[in-house]
Amino acid sequence: MTVRETDTNKLVTCIVQDIFLDEKENKEMLQKAEWDREPLHLSINAQILGEEIKSAIIIYVKSVTEK
User: Fold this and answer.
1) Confidence class for position 66, pLDDT limits 50, 70, 90
2) Start-end of H helices in the chain
3) Tens digits of residue pLDDT in 1-13
Protein backbone atom coordinates (compact mmCIF):
# COMPACT_ATOMS: atom_id res chain seq x y z
CA MET A 1 0.00 0.00 0.00
CA THR A 2 1.34 3.43 -0.89
CA VAL A 3 0.55 6.26 1.49
CA ARG A 4 1.17 9.99 1.15
CA GLU A 5 2.35 12.23 3.96
CA THR A 6 -0.10 15.14 3.77
CA ASP A 7 2.32 17.91 4.80
CA THR A 8 5.11 17.06 2.35
CA ASN A 9 3.27 14.93 -0.24
CA LYS A 10 6.05 12.33 0.12
CA LEU A 11 4.95 8.84 -0.97
CA VAL A 12 5.88 5.82 1.13
CA THR A 13 5.22 2.20 0.19
CA CYS A 14 4.13 0.30 3.31
CA ILE A 15 3.55 -3.33 4.10
CA VAL A 16 0.17 -4.14 5.59
CA GLN A 17 0.56 -7.32 7.62
CA ASP A 18 -2.20 -9.94 7.75
CA ILE A 19 -2.29 -9.76 11.55
CA PHE A 20 -3.03 -6.01 11.28
CA LEU A 21 -5.92 -6.69 8.87
CA ASP A 22 -7.31 -9.44 11.12
CA GLU A 23 -8.69 -6.66 13.31
CA LYS A 24 -11.86 -5.83 11.40
CA GLU A 25 -11.92 -2.13 12.31
CA ASN A 26 -8.40 -1.62 10.90
CA LYS A 27 -9.32 -3.12 7.55
CA GLU A 28 -12.61 -1.19 7.36
CA MET A 29 -10.94 2.10 8.32
CA LEU A 30 -8.23 1.69 5.66
CA GLN A 31 -10.77 0.76 2.97
CA LYS A 32 -13.12 3.63 3.82
CA ALA A 33 -10.30 6.18 3.83
CA GLU A 34 -8.99 4.86 0.51
CA TRP A 35 -12.40 4.88 -1.18
CA ASP A 36 -13.46 8.25 0.29
CA ARG A 37 -9.94 9.73 -0.18
CA GLU A 38 -9.86 10.84 3.46
CA PRO A 39 -6.71 11.26 5.56
CA LEU A 40 -5.84 8.92 8.44
CA HIS A 41 -3.33 9.01 11.27
CA LEU A 42 -0.94 6.10 10.74
CA SER A 43 1.85 4.80 12.93
CA ILE A 44 4.50 3.33 10.70
CA ASN A 45 7.54 1.34 11.75
CA ALA A 46 10.18 2.23 9.17
CA GLN A 47 13.80 1.33 8.54
CA ILE A 48 15.75 4.22 7.06
CA LEU A 49 19.19 4.01 5.49
CA GLY A 50 20.65 7.44 4.85
CA GLU A 51 17.68 9.44 3.61
CA GLU A 52 15.93 6.49 1.96
CA ILE A 53 13.16 4.43 3.54
CA LYS A 54 14.08 0.77 3.05
CA SER A 55 10.95 -0.78 4.59
CA ALA A 56 7.81 0.48 6.29
CA ILE A 57 5.08 -1.42 8.12
CA ILE A 58 1.77 0.07 9.23
CA ILE A 59 1.30 -0.80 12.90
CA TYR A 60 -1.61 1.44 13.93
CA VAL A 61 -4.38 3.39 12.25
CA LYS A 62 -6.70 6.05 13.66
CA SER A 63 -9.29 8.30 12.09
CA VAL A 64 -8.30 11.96 11.85
CA THR A 65 -11.55 12.84 13.61
CA GLU A 66 -10.81 10.59 16.62
CA LYS A 67 -9.36 12.24 19.71
Assistant:
1) low
2) 18-21, 24-36
3) 888 888 888 888 9
